[in-house]
Design a protein that fits this description.
mainly alpha; 73 residues; 58% helix; single chain
Amino acid sequence: MNIEQFFNECSRHDWFYDYSDDHSVWTAGHENKERIYRLAENDILREIIVREFRQYVLGNRERPVLEEFISNG
């Protein structure tokens, strides 16, 4: 999985699952978050992407965009 694919996984993830009253939504969100975290282990750029999405959820930044994480040269 390349960085663009990983970013797309993060982008499609429901980062707000924790606020759901529906336990099945919470469970699916939690399991997917754990999968994303496993995919990011030991990869600095992937860990940064996850961190930035967490900052987005906390309201500390705008939603991340792929161009922030890829070089054009």
